[in-house]
Design brief:
RFC_lid, Rossmann fold, Zinc Finger, Delta Prime, domain 3, alpha/beta, five-stranded parallel β-sheet, 16 helices, about 325 residues, ATP-binding
Amino acid sequence: MSEADATGDGTGGRKQVWIEKYRPDGLDEVVGHEDIIGRIRSYVEQDDIPHLMFAGPAGVGKTATSVSIAKEIYGDDWRENFLELNASDQRGIDVVRDRIKNFARSSFGGYDYRIIFLDEADALTSDAQSALRRTMEQFSNNTRFILSCNYSSKIIDPIQSRCAVFRFSPLSDEAVAEQVRYIAGEEGIEYTEDGVDALVYAADGDMRKAINALQAASVMGDAVDEETVYAITSTARPEEVEAMVTDALDGDFVAARAKLDELITERGLAGGDIIDQIHRSAWEFELDEQAAVRLLDRLGEADYRITTGANERVQLEALLASLALE
């Protein structure tokens, strides 16, 4: 890295947000979804793009793939032919009636169709989705829609049936680790393999989270290591979560509660994050089948109560207590 970049006098390095700096510029640069990208590339090469729906969790490449499609088709003109709307911010029927229809109607030259990208489309109201269905039919000769959502079940069936649906799964650990190493090399960041493993664990298949954590950890010391990553991401080590659950299952509620208190009070972890980490690691605790089933049953109950507004600490302590009593 140049001295200008390191001191913030240049345009690169620490002064840039890495998730934007390393956003794919084409389909070849989208990592972790080779099968999906191969099918989409066939559409692009044949210049026969249908309406598309991308469903999957955050940070797995849905928006990156959508923008890459536009760049592949339109080249430098992609911004003029690609309308991006966040449906969670603009979720009413007026958006469909006004902005989308105006863009679809507007004249343009050189291309057979333009692309409208609706991010978080599952946040659209039912009325807006009904209006969108008709709009997709009305302007199908010169407009293609790409809908991105976390839950395809929230999209009405008439829209789903008009789209080619692609389901994006969480990125593999190998794909996340490879991209982390690539960016660290490009930025001249020293790292340890334990640090990479920690970034992969904290990201849990979310590339955006991994890259943001790498950028934050890179300014904390000489090298990105395991300790720095867990501190930056407010993530408990897997062995800490395992020790807490094991103490509870062994009947030592006091020890389990002390470990929980440390995670919440001293480390600042949210209750929902602790629930997620326990769930992710449940089958790695080497528990017998009955104990694992009991843990997951109690975990589901605590998660439901927390999401409906119950006190996180009380519910987590109740979870540990119920494990310790049986």
